[in-house]
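Input chain follows. Return structure tokens only.
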Amino acid sequence: MAIKKAYGWSDIDVVLFGDISVHITNITYEVTREKTNGYGKGASPVRRGRGKKNYESISMTIAMPEVVQIKEALRAKYGIGFDLTDIIPFDIPIIYDNGEKVVKDVIRDFEWTRDGGGGGEDDQDIVIELPGICSNILFNLPV
């Protein structure tokens, strides 16, 4: 088997509201699904039950300049009193390009579940962790 080039953070483009986010410092997303073994004769499982899929483990960390920009656009559209949790669901394409193969994941109908801010005495670059939920994640799509 030939050696393949790894994907690194510099190979990921996260697209927020139609533009590549240059201030995002981390994004994590996953689908989980409850599964249980069913037993019958003997000590080993003989069937498996599958529950609902869960898309609530989504989080991104964004530097304060981009958070401010998003909130300014939100205020211009809706007025004062709205926060990130008020934005209607939107898709987040995530493109992985390691120079050998380009693939895309899409987080569908994403919504932030928390808004906030903060910082500390030694912070030189404030970043905000923003969790959310979605309706589906499409993995490894061709580009």
